[in-house]
């Protein structure tokens, strides 16, 4: 047995050879992969919430040399994935802006994947994914518009517009 720190030499075809220092005998291991690691560090679920047409900063850490990444989102908790951006230079962050209307969901996840690993390159598949996030509709208010002074016991209409339909909408005064 020998304690080996895995080097930053990503490959899907790695073999370890052990040889006898005093003679020609040697043995090769079976092929295995050395892959990098991507860990999504933001957004943080369930603490971060977002609205459509706003921006969602996506952040991750990288171990190993992963030069390009693909960013994806899932509306069903990770069963299937849709593209955000492909072939992005790995800078450990990306601003998803604007968040599309199709991302309104209570079961949203984002992930960052090694672009070379997915396309059959030399790296093994590597991904990091967020926890479940929430993206809601963006509301605009017509009334109150700001600057009004409403007296106690008066009736006033609350008027708003919404960028996308959201089931279960409620008014909360605070």
Protein model, in words:
With 174 residues, the protein is mostly beta strands. It has one helix spanning 115-118; strands at residues 11-14, 17-19, 26-28, 32-34, 37-42, 49-51, 56-63, 68-74, 82-89, 93-96, 105-114, 127-129, 133-136, 139-143, 159-162. Strands 6, 8, 9, 11, 12 and 13 form a six-stranded mixed β-sheet that branches. The longest helix has 4 residues, at 115-118. It is rod-shaped. The model is unreliable at 118-125 (pLDDT under 50).
Question: Layout of helices and strands, plus pairs?
Answer:
Layout (H helix, E strand, L loop, with lengths): L10 E4 L2 E3 L6 E3 L3 E3 L2 E6 L6 E3 L4 E8 L4 E7 L7 E8 L3 E4 L8 E10 H4 L8 E3 L3 E4 L2 E5 L15 E4 L12
Parallel strand pairs: 6-13
Antiparallel strand pairs: 1-4, 2-3, 5-7, 7-10, 8-9, 8-11, 11-12, 11-13, 14-15
């Amino acid at each position: 047995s020998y304690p080996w720190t895995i080097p930053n030499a990503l490959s899907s075809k790695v073999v370890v050879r052990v040889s006898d220092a005093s003679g020609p005998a040697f043995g090769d291991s079976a092929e295995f992969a050395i892959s990098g690691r991507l860990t999504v560090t933001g957004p943080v679920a369930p603490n971060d919430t977002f609205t459509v047409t706003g921006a969602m900063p996506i952040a991750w850490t990288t171990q190993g040399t992963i030069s390009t990444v693909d960013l994806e989102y899932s509306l069903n908790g990770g069963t299937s994935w849709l593209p955000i951006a492909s072939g992005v230079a790995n800078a450990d962050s990306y601003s998803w802006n604007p968040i599309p209307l199709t991302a309104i969901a209570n079961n949203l996840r984002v992930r960052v994947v090694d672009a070379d690993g997915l396309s059959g390159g030399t790296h093994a598949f590597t991904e990091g994914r967020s926890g479940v996030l929430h993206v809601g509709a963006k509301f605009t208010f017509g009334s109150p518009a700001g600057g009004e002074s409403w007296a106690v016991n008066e009736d006033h209409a609350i008027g708003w517009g919404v960028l996308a339909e959201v089931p279960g909408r409620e008014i909360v005064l605070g």
